[in-house]
């Protein structure tokens, strides 16, 4: 798949928010026949050993409740590289205040490409509310991409 139809979702640990955004986007894009595909990565300098399993139970449970079988359920969190930016036409980080400093420190040369959403991590916002915001934002993004294709 070429970069012209790929979205990269970024969050701190690639365990909860970005993984949910990736799976919801891919599910919705598939239903809409959009021809876009999402992938996700962590912007932290290292992964967090306290994150048990490949994906947050909150993410898995929310997807299961929607009847979505996550395509990336077996993949563990992955650190972002500059090459990941090169593989994406669109880059979205889930929280401006949290992620912008990390992105500017680790990826200064491509930081200007990042669009920021405003979805707090679990210690600041309960999962149903946070994941609901991601549902809404992904829906808006898909609508925007559909209008570009018309």
UniProtKB/TrEMBL annotation:
InterPro entries linked to this entry: Ptyr_pPase, Ptyr_pPase_sf
Alphabetical list of Gene3D superfamilies matching this protein: 3.40.50.2300
Pfam families: LMWPc
Organism: Bradyrhizobium cytisi
Protein name: Low molecular weight phosphatase family protein
Residue ranges constituting the Phosphotyrosine protein phosphatase I domain according to the UniProt record: 5-144
